[in-house]
Amino acid sequence: MKWITRERPKIDRLACPWLIKRFIDREAEFLYVPFEAVQSEATRLKAIPYDVPDVEYTHYEDQCTFDYFIKKHGITNPALLTIATIVRAADTDRHDMAGQASGLWAITAGLSYNIKDDHELLQLGMVLYDGLYSWARHLQGEKHTQNPTEYMLLEVYRKFLKQKSAAKKTPAWVRELKGIIQDQVDTDISLRLQDVSKNLQVHPSYLSREFSKYFDNLTFGEYMRKLRIERAIHLMESTPYSLSEIAYLCGFSDQSHFSRIFKKHTGLSPSLYKKSKLKRSKR
After folding, report:
1. What whole-number distance in Å separates Cα of residue 153 and Cα of residue 150?
2. DSSP strands (E only) in the chain
3. pTM for the whole structure
4. In this predicted structure, what is the pLDDT of residue 264?
5. φ, ψ at 101 (rounded to 5°)
6. Is the distance from CB of 181 to CB of 199 less than 8 angstroms?
7. Geometric angle at alpha carbon 38, from 91 and 23, rounded to 5°
8. Residues near 114 by Cβ (< 8 Å), separated by ≥ 6?
9. 29 phi and psi, to 5 degrees?
10. Which of 2, 98, 128, 234 could cross-link 86 (Cys pair, CB 3.0–4.6 Å)?
11. What is the pLDDT of residue 219?
């Protein structure tokens, strides 16, 4: 059976072929193509697409594609279920779920950076996940540190100090997303969640759920509307543009839509806000 996904694999797109080859289809052949070509090439080559939108084998809610393979094929192997948690934590940037997730992300990202041939990268990924499977099956109880006192201190660090520090750390995707929004705020406030999630390589359902935690307790849509209104106010106060022109420049479909959202955020219609601003400036 042929399986196909987007090029430049990292966590999930290395884990899934490993799972398929080792436990589902030992004769499997894997293909990596540009994102936009996956569906057409899947049809042409009679291959099964995975880890792309709008196919069966993909992310669902907070689960990644590896999770779906596990569920679809009724896999109950405890070691594979452990790996599934690690892969999900690394692939959805929830490293607090599994202590191994940060390491898995770092290693696969580094390999992807060093190796440009996707099939060569896949071969190393197979070795990587073979090692992770052996650890999950035979060595989870083993500790590298054998000194009892040192081990006890490490446990305290892992359970309390590290968790406390991690809770305060802003995920990498949040910092990157703030940069994307900041770069676009003066020229284009029509960013779509799907486009942003693809840019960040963060699944849209996870991004949508987690967004409000880091952006003023607002959903993605609410936050973007807030930025539009803030930009509209800036233009009203600093330019001679008409309200229709400002509505257009701030990405609203028409002036009535602009007026409705503006009033919701400020309590005043754009025209009344502009008049009150003029009155205040004359005093």
Report:
1. 5
2. 2-6, 29-33, 48-49
3. 0.53
4. 87
5. -65, -45
6. no
7. 55
8. none
9. -120, 135
10. 98
11. 85
Q: How far, in Å, are 7, 24, 155, 205 from residue 150 at the CA level?
A: 43, 42, 9, 41
Both tokens assigned to 42: 């899947």
- Size (the chain), residues: 283
- Of 210, 14, 21, the closest CA to residue 105 belongs to 14
Quick one: pLDDT at residue 215?
84
- Contact (CB, 8 A) for 86 and 104: yes
Residue type, position 204, single letter:
P
Give the whole-angstrom CA distance, residue 133 versus residue 53: 28
Q: Which residues pair with 48 in a beta bridge?
A: 3
User: What stretches in the chain show pLDDT beneath 50?
Assistant: 149, 186-187
Residue corresponding to tokens 């406390």: 164
Q: Give the per-residue pLDDT at 29.
A: 95
Phi first, then psi, for residue 98 (nearest 5°) are -150, 130
pLDDT of 153 reads 54
Distances (CA, A) of 37 to 161, 188, 246: 46, 28, 39
